[in-house]
Amino acid sequence: MIIAERKPLAEIIEMVQNCKKILVLACRGCVTVCSAGGEREAEILASLIRLGLKKAGKKAEVFDASLVRQCDREYIDAIDQFKGKYDAIVSTACGVGVNFIANLRPDDNVFPALNTTFFGGSAEQGEWSEQCAGCGDCVLHLTGGLCPVARCAKSLMNGPCGGSVDGRCEINADVDCVWQMIYDRMGRLERQKEMVQSAPIRDWSTAGHGGPRKLVRQDLTV
Amino acid sequence: MSFTPDIRLFSCHYTSQQSCADEGRELQGLNFPGNIRITRVVCTGKLEEVTLLKAFEEGADGVYVVGCPADGCHNLKGSLRAAKRVQAVRDALEELDVEPDRIKMYHLPRGLHPEFVDAGVEMNTRVTKMGPSPF
Asked: Distance of CA A113 to CAs A11, A34, B91, Å?
């Protein structure tokens, strides 16, 4: 899922300091699961914005509401139920949600409440780690299911590098060297011979280096 | 100018059971500050962060939570969860450039112990010293 975290309050309050009616809009998708921008977090943020603006001597009404998702046109349409009740939307969705509101509601002021950080998973409650970089050309079948693009600091295709020491990455001793993990795992799976092959120079155009990416499925378009 | 703070206490049902008995008359007799309004909750672990924030929105100058001892919660981890939420509000107050000590968590034994009164007196003294809430 997409992992995100709330921006510093001062930054959010500065965005809306001149607004009189503010809608803090939660997303019930990924950001609810990672406890960054669901209904609970939006209610907390609305309260904090009210307190922050009041302390700054500003008068504003701050509401909170939620949409099923902010990354689909059909759900964005539900914003219209709040029409006229706000002059700014503070979205607690990921950056996709903020962009979608901006795309589909050209006259609405929309501000991001979160910093969208990575695609990740939660192995322990309250902890998330990056697992996928969305590079558009998956190599996990070659690496035992462990991603060198997202999990190697250098995104090496032929690792490990010389900075791998005792299974740890040179950027930080707390970070596992994913190439060591790949090597160990391929050994356990008796697939170590596959590692002798060198990966060719990679075409990164699918990873966004060729501009914004788009996917069209003719079987689904109407 | 004298200032009597508005203080809200959210207390665990078990911790405050005896303190609230007899409509709190015994508590008052022990010099528990009269300006502290007690809200009993089934378990402090049930307290939401937004409930604590709304107390400030409603005009509280200080807020504190009294729950079971950290290693002896009736509901196992309720008071530990409450402590995390109190800490989150402390962090938020700090972000808003407001004294984080306007909110505090206390882990106290069950029953009407002197510590229950001491916590109220301590909170009252601290918030009185800090002055009115900036909200």
From this structure: 9, 14, 17
Q: Report yes or no on B66 lying in a domain.
A: yes
pLDDT 10s digits, A111-121? 999 999 999 99
ipTM above 0.95, yes or no: no
Kindly report the average pLDDT of chain A as a whole number: 96
φ, ψ (nearest 5 deg) of residue A3: -105, 140
User: What backbone torsions phi and psi does residue A149 show, to the nearest 5 degrees?
Assistant: -70, -50
Q: Looking at the 3D structure of chain B, how many domains does it have?
A: 1
Environment class of A134 (CB within 10 Å of its CB; exposed 0-12, middle 13-18, buried 19+): middle
Q: Note whether B54 contacts A47, CB cutoff 8 Å.
A: yes
Distances (CA, A) of B26 to A17, A38, B29, B121: 48, 44, 5, 15
The whole domain housing B53 covers: 7-128
Query: A44–B57: do the CB atoms touch at under 8 Å?
Result: no
Taken in order of first residue, the domains within chain A and their CATH numbers are: 2-118 (3.40.50.2300), 133-202 (no CATH)
CA atoms of B70 and A138, how far apart (whole Å): 47
CATH of the domain at B119: 3.40.50
Tokens of B39: 């809200």
Give contacts of B96 with chain A, Cβ < 8 Å. Answer: 9, 48, 51-52, 55
> Measuring CA to CA, which residue among A91, A85, A195, A210 is closest to residue A144?
A195
pTM of the model: 0.94
Tens-place pLDDT, residues B57-72: 999 999 999 999 999 8
A112 contacts A95 by C-beta, under 8 angstroms: yes
Q: Residue B93 gets which letter from DSSP?
A: H
**Residue A10 is nearest to which of B54, B57, B95, comparing CB atoms?**
B95
Q: Are B53 and A48 in contact (CB under 8 A)?
A: yes
Closest CA to B47 of B7, B93, B80: B80
Set of chain A residues whose Cβ sits within 8 Å of the Cβ of B80: none
Instruction: Please report which confidence band the pLDDT of residue A161 belongs to, taking 50, 70 and 90 as the band edges.
Output: very high
